[in-house]
Design brief:
Helix 4 links the parallel strand 2 and strand 3. It contains 9 helices and 10 strands. Helix 6 packs across helix 8. A 7-stranded mixed beta sheet has the order 4-3-2-5-6-10-9, with helices on both faces. By secondary structure, the chain is an alpha/beta fold. It starts with 12 loop residues before the first strand and ends with a strand. It binds S-adenosylmethionine. The site of S-adenosylmethionine (SAM) has 21 residues, from helix 1 and helix 4.
């Protein structure tokens, strides 16, 4: 892991994941852009969403990803998240079979139970990626898929911007952010027994700049990435 502190250009007060998302939940859905993750999910060509029967959404938050998976026709989705306030919003969406308050690296979900495991916009909050990839492998079926979408480490380093939100008083507050190079993902995934089948990256393009005009200085730089992994025992 590369330490974020060396890149921090904002100097925002930093809080832990549970405290941060407990407060951000009030405005989360209005501030997270689909361009960050949903567009990358849509771009993945190697994932046969329509063939998935049971999926696990690790770090499900308010259920944005779960709602998208349900629209793809996936009937049974279990969600896991550390923050009860985020799980409360996910519950109200009524797209999950069960929602579990747990760490993504120790979910308590059944082993070899899911055709697909998904993690969106969570990995930058983890000090160590390896337990996440191991847990995803444990709960996926032997030939199951794992899709991980993340906030690009290049963007975090080049912009010096942590994951953050505005508190009720208007103060920008950072949530504990870690930098994981893409090679760390590849090493962690391979070590956990996954085979990489697809990778996509999204840059700050005209569509992004229409959403975030202040990011002109970041034009054409990568902002998000997606990996699709498959179990080796096919
Ligand atoms: C940016 S939100 C993403 C939520 C959802 N996946 C989405 O794309 O909208 C990050 C979520 O990850 C959760 N989270 C962060 N670290 C976690 C951990 N170690 N275990 C479980 N959940 C975690 C937070 O509580 C929060 O709900």
């Amino acid at each position: 892991m590369t330490r974020f502190e060396g890149f921090d250009s904002r100097g925002y007060r930093t809080v832990d994941v549970r405290s941060g998302y407990a407060e951000w939940v009030a405005t989360y859905e209005q501030t997270v852009e689909d361009a960050m993750d949903i567009h990358l999910l849509e771009a993945l060509g190697e994932v046969p969403w329509e063939g998935v029967h049971e999926a696990a959404d690790l770090g499900c938050g308010t259920g944005r990803t779960g709602a998208w998976l349900r629209e793809r026709g996936i009937a049974t989705i279990d969600g896991v998240d550390l923050t009860p306030e985020m799980l409360g919003v996910a519950r109200a969406r009524e797209v999950y079979r069960q929602l579990v308050q747990a760490d993504v690296s120790a979910t308590g979900l059944d082993s070899s139970a899911y055709d697909l495991v998904v993690t969106c916009l969570v990995d930058e909050h983890l000090a160590d990626l390896r337990p996440l990839y191991v847990e995803a492998r444990r709960i996926a079926r032997p030939d199951g898929l794992y899709v991980l979408v993340g906030f690009h480490p290049h963007f975090i380093m080049a912009s010096g911007m942590p994951t953050h939100y505005d508190s009720a008083s208007g103060e920008p507050v950072a949530i504990e952010t870690h930098v994981h190079l893409l090679s760390e993902h590849v090493s962690a995934g391979l070590a956990a027994g996954w085979t990489l089948v697809e990778m996509r990256e999204r840059v700050v393009d005209d569509e992004w700049l229409a959403l975030k005009p202040k990011w002109e200085a970041m034009r054409d730089q990568p902002i998000a990435f997606a990996f699709a992994w498959r179990g080796q025992d096919v």
